[in-house]
TrEMBL record:
Coiled coil: none annotated. This is Phospholipid-transporting ATPase. Mg(2+) binds at residues 556, 558, 946, 950. The chain crosses the membrane at residues 442-467, 487-510, 1003-1023, 1043-1065, 1086-1108, 1120-1139, 1151-1174, 1194-1213. Residues 972-1224 form the P-type ATPase C-terminal domain. GO terms for cellular component: Cdc50p-Drs2p complex; plasma membrane; trans-Golgi network.
Amino acid sequence: MANNHPRDDPFADSDEDILFDLGPSDTRHSRTGYQQNVAGGYSPYDGRVVINSAYDAADPFFGTNEHLPNLSGHPVEDPFYDPDDNSIVPDITDTQNGSSYPAENKPQGLRNIYNNMKSKLTMGDYRPPTASADEELYQDSRPPPDRDLSEDFKNMFDIRRIVKKILRKPQDDASQGPRIIHLNDAASNNAFGYMDNHISTTKYNAATFVPKFLFEQFSKYANLFFLFTSIIQQVPNVSPTNRYTTIGTLAIVLLVSALKEITEDFKRMSADNELNRAKVEVLEAETGNFVHKKWIKVFVGDIVRVRNGDPFPADLILLNSSEPEGICYVETANLDGETNLKIKQSKTDTVSLVDSRDLARLNGKIKCEPPNSSLYTFEGTLFFNNQEVALSPDQLLPRGASLRNTGWVHGIVIFTGHETKLMRNATAAPIKRTDVERVINLQIIALFGILITLSVVSSFGDLITMISNAKNMKYLYLEGTNKLSKFFLDLLTYWILFSNLVPISLFVTVEIIKYYQAWMIASDVDMYYEPTDTPTVCRTSSLVEELGQIEYVFSDKTGTLTRNIMEYKTCSIAGKCYIEEIPEDSRAEIVDGVETGYHSFADLKAELATGSSDAKIINEFFTLLATCHTVIPEVLETGETRYQAASPDEGALVDGAASLGYKFTIRKPTGVFIEVDGEEQWYELLNICEFNSTRKRMSGLFRCPDGTIKLYTKGADTVILERLQDENPFVDVTLKHMEEFAAEGLRTLCIATRIIPEKEYQEWNKIFQKASTTLVDRSQALDDAAELIEKDLFLLGATAIEDKLQDGVPETIHTLQTAGIRVWVLTGDRQETAINIGMSCRLLSEDMNLLIVNEDNKEDTRQNLTEKCEALRENDLSQEDMESLALVIDGKSLGFALESDLEDMFLEIGLLCKAVICCRVSPLQKALVVKLVKRKKKALLLAIGDGANDVSMIQAAHVGVGISGMEGMQAARSADFAIGQFRFLEKLLLVHGSWSYRRISLAILYSFYKNIALYMTQFWYVFSNGFSGQSIMESWTLTFYNVIFTVLPPFVIGVFDQYVSAQMLTRYPQMYKAGQRREFFNVETFWSWAINGFYHSAILYLGAINIYKYGNQLHDGHIVDHWSFGVALYSACMFTALGKAALVSSVWTKFTLIAIPGSILLWLCLYPPYAYIAPKVNVSKELLGTVPVVYNSMNFWFMIFILPVLCLSRDFLWKYYRRMYRPETYHVVQELQKAKYQETGPRSESFRNSLKRLRQSVRMRKRTGFAFDQGGTDQDRLMKLFDTTKKRDDGFVRAQVNESFL
């Protein structure tokens, strides 16, 4: 069914509508036509109304399912339908509105009312649309071009459209029918209301900001608590304080939080706009020319041209390209993590549509599947020129992928914006709450309980006092007062009086602290990546403290750990290793008759010049690398040759051979030219035995310049070694070299050859040709044919390719593991590739036991997991044992393992392992793995990636980190933090994370403490004032306590305090475990601070009462009044709180001096002018005349110094005891830091290399490091397709189809 909304309709949604004809017609109604038009989703009639399927249960005019056809084709409650008579009765015309009705059945009841309403709305009656019984199901029944379909929809109100537009809610896949896209017919496509190409990763929009923001803010119980308090304060004669103090402060808190959220979301919007405003060439059907338009102006049905290196602006169907047979190379690493290029091919029917004028004249339509999240499937049909062309994933160019090594492609847009497969795999930016916030919420509930208890006690006290002292309280006129009413009014009064036990400024203080912490993270020059001018970006400052508590890191591989660059590193030829730069202490030498170490490439070239037997093997080795491959050469205008490779491994091998003098120059359908020492040589390609994951090898048969036929084979050692001839002198030494290569994390291939006699070849070729044309299990027949020729091989040597890691990746992973962080790698690469990278980045080591799960069905997966679980349970594993375990599981098995009945076993094994690698996984599986651990394990998770395929995983984790890398900015835009390199994760977590967690914890604990210390004096005071509810201090002064006089210490502690330096945190990563154990902020720590606050409040109140009890006389004979005593107690509480801040500060800076001594001076200097001026403007009138009373009293000065010392002496002694007799890890490191301790020990490179060789000598098993991929293409067809000797117009060497081959 169609979506009938214009593209420019601001309220257009993705809902499914059915058009019904309402205009008059003399045509008899066919049931078949009715069904077909409903299914087609559009009608050729002028009068129409949209009846949405979502309303069918509540439509008062149509009944339950009026608009849906029943089995006979008529509406369910059609009053003119006789179930016993399939004929249609003649129509007559209604004189009232011109509508037609059956002669004997004039509409009555609800039908008549409905028709009258439609008449007033200038609409005809409901009638099924006319269609013949033999029409095609998806006929093109569009209206004439001059009919503007959008007007009907613009004038129609549907609240669901507005809601879905605001929420950016895509259609439910299951509810949609096939999508119809008309070629070069924008008006018809407009009517379907397809989404525009705008994308948004923002957390809010203009309509959702207020409800989402308020929901997020009031999910914090403190804000909810103060909202309730501020409402109570508005009740007359209840509040003992000013009625606006709480609500005013709460409004400021919410305003500051709103500004922070808007600022962060604006950054996300700016990043989205940068992408939405990118340019692409779009065909104008009217002029037949391509014009540049912004991506946001690209719509479904547009034909676009994408040039080499550019990303696809939407999901496209490939029509043609600059290459033979409409082939193009696509990089999809941004979608699925695959490093190798994919080959896409257009249908032969559209290959000829190269000229823009031909494209503009293209007429027809595409019927395809509705938008969905599957990256690997696509089904559709192209209707044009009276033919139907089946479409498959080979023609799909998804958004997020980029065009590579192809001049240009033309494609027609099928999915746009949030309906693309890329965005369907993304989720809306979630609201994430930190672990600290969750603990705070729970403790606020506990404090709420304490507040209720205090209020009840005080209310009962007032009630008891009123009853027991009734004779002495007659002046209050309390006779006849309702005791129950009095109790509840007192309860509200005390609620307000004690409400500030929870600091109202807490969350705004924390928000500002986090904002500055995020700013400092972004300003850290150590995390600035200069080559790409990429600073660290903090998009969600509210999560900074979570960085200090991470227990699991889920990482992508491609572009996150690696650079997406393959480099030819070294090789073993004829038993000798060659490398460009010989490592320290690794020069070749003979030990016990066996050569170890490396020769240089210069030695290799010198050996070639000698013409020795080794030189002949070297020549054969590099000739094989230069000829046996699927690479296509491109010669740029500069004369430089660039190799197009579907597999990055092959590109590296060919490039390595070229750098050593064997340059591949030209590919023709019948063979290749290579250049050796300036001489061009022709190798005729006879046959290709393709690489696949089962064969693990590729072979090519060539007729060499001397006329001999040679078989060139490269592949895994396991399959090459078993096909060697008996006499192979280099097998043992080559295997030893391959083990050494694998230990370095290099990707290896065995290289072998064989001379094929002419007669044997001719006989084998007949078998091969027969296998290549069979229609029964062709791939197996080709594999069997290859087995016949791939035998008696001679081993030439082995290659080693480095999948280059980003700088510092091995060291970073090792440091994270030392810090107690488990690292899981989730990648789309093959198992061998993933294991090799795991070795090279030190996630895996040679002495680790790999638990591999690679099954094809659920039962085998269940059995595999069960066996491993039982084996691990039977052995009582020590920590050392678990350090030697690593789990490797492929995507297919993972899909089964994530099902509800197997997920517990999978997770149990994964949690016991030091490292986990999930390979060949989809973006959805990445997110599901993260969600599984998040759901089952009460630990904080971090996900890091650089591609759009990582977005779901990033958003599923507690903290998401995106790398601004080679695969685009999609992950960085959707993440909470964005960094330039993986190695920056070390400082982000171990330094900034630890600092932030410690700082935030102290700031929160201190904020609660200082409020409890002050406001609990209000409770102690009720025992002295007869439970009257009288405040001991003036209300605005109480408000200034949090807003002015003690606001700076939490900021300074939260922003600048460093309990340990950055250098010591990275040197001793074990300190990070304190955050994982929640040592700085947990329930026990919170209540230790809270109880300390209760204790200090009691000391302060009792001390103040006793000091003023015997020294409250003034020099003029008067005694100290109530408010002057309150100011003295207020000052003592403030100085105690500031002293506590000084005691817990680890570092004193100029900001600390301003915050603590500065706040003391601020109060002493600000109080006199405020107490004089404020009463004159009817504010704080209670303070009138208190200044001389307070400042002229020795009791005041004695109290503000003695009471803080008395309170804090216990804290000081406790701190001394802990550091001296029960020190924490950071206490020890602090002492080392003060002593400027320098770690000493053997640090030389040679020592580390010797230690590494020693460890490798005791390996538990051998590995040779095979990892190779051919790109999964039709290699034989591809190699015989190109002729790179012909030029194309844009300056590249054009790979054209050889006509004789076609």
